[in-house]
Amino acid sequence: MTISPPPILTAYASGHESADAAPVDPARWPDVARLPRSTALRTAIARRIVEHALSKTPLRIRHGARHHGGIPAPADGGGHPTLVLHDPAAFHRRIGADGLIGFGESYMAGEWDADDLVAVLTALASHADDLVPAPLRRLRGAWVHRRPADDRNSLEGAGDNVRRHYDLSNDLFALFLDPSLTYSSAVFTELPATQGDLTAAQHRKIDRLLDLARVGPGTRLLEIGTGWGELALRAAARGAEVLTVTLSAEQRDLAVRRIAAAGLSDRVTVELRDYRQVHGHFDAVVSVEMIEAVGAEYWPVFFAALRRLLAPGGSVALQGITMRHESMLNTARTHTWISKYVFPGGLIPSREAIAGESAAAGLRITDDTGYGDHYAETLKLWREDFLRQAEAVTALGFDRVFLRMWELYLAYSEAGFRSRYLDVRQLRLVADGPVPGSPR
């Protein structure tokens, strides 16, 4: 099913073009089309920070025929990833004004490219802790922005945040996902993976989660975050009775059709509903990469809901992206490029945060396994297919800036896992005593 993209994404140019392509439409991408205000001092400091950062990495910067970087360019021009600046002045000005948001917007504007985008971003992520000189880290507050109040995941806000990403177009996601339409990390039998491995690897991931939750014939299963219905389908095929909830109308509609086509409508109910509005008791609760959309403010509410909905003897299976605890604390209130353009309201938790919040809600973790390398491979396959389908993406009504934005999003995410800045975990949780606050 295709819907018209929001006005900001409507096409005006086609193809994945270079920096000298059609100008950015200011009505659709206002902060990309115009350069932000930045003092000469801030821009100069940004330039020095970039130069210092590169001195810590194996990267090179190329301005035309010139090469700069922490490691001299080899005589044959190979061996080190290269960041190519088409407009150095604009690049440094954006970073001077908006930090990493400016870094991303500069890419969307076509002001820089890379000979290997993932390699460049992986090198930066691998040195994230020492890119900025220690004395300048105290000035971090001058470059970061607070998260907008409108991005809070209240009952109303959560729906708006989800729709901004997942309701773009089912046809868009179908262009780069495998036929199972699974938009989360796969689990492969071996790495590196190939496109032919992806569907089987997605089913392996789903089956492992269903096993963790002890899902079988007659299980009353709640799924929080329907996606396009593949987990609900596989659970119903095991004989489970499934209630699956989502805030995306696009996903809900397609999931209902897929479930009906499989002849499993009598076992699966799909509802457009927030997890906070679900009632009842379930033998198993499964949620795949939805916790990142909850927001730190609502983590206590989320885990309390899991405990409240879990029947005696039941199990919760979660799959979630995690980051180091210190990194999470540094970004908890920060408005990032990802939160501005890709996942509004989102925050990746740390393992420590998950353990603390689940314990406070009366849940105990009994199984915790990481698959970060597998997510890097999953993202690589998605990115390759997305770029191969560039013409089809523009035919759906998405423009050149959107193409560059999503290429950067997929490469940025892959780099996070390749550098081990990010991980993805599968966890099993069980009740640890009575529901907090309930009579014994």
CATH class of the largest domain: Alpha Beta
Average of the residue pLDDT scores: 89
End-to-end C-alpha gap = 49 Å
**What composes the largest sheet?**
7 strands, mixed
- What is the name of the CATH superfamily of the largest domain? Vaccinia Virus protein VP39
Query: Number of DSSP helices?
Result: 17
Oligomer: single chain
The whole-angstrom Rg is 22 Å
Helix content: 40-55%
Largest beta sheet: strand ordering: 8-7-6-9-10-13-12
Query: What is the count of structural domains?
Result: 2
Which structural class do you get from the secondary structure elements?
Answer: alpha/beta
Layout of helices and strands, plus pairs?
Blueprint: H1 30-33, H2 40-55, E1 60-63, E2 66-69, E3 82-85, H3 88-108, E4 112-114, H4 117-126, H5 134-137, E5 145-146, H6 155-166, H7 170-176, H8 198-212, E6 220-224, H9 230-237, E7 241-246, H10 249-261, E8 268-272, E9 282-288, H11 299-309, E10 310-323, H12 325-331, E11 334-335, H13 337-341, H14 351-360, E12 363-370, H15 372-388, H16 390-395, H17 400-418, E13 422-431
Parallel strand pairs: 1-3, 6-7, 6-9, 7-8, 9-10
Antiparallel strand pairs: 1-2, 3-4, 5-11, 10-13, 12-13
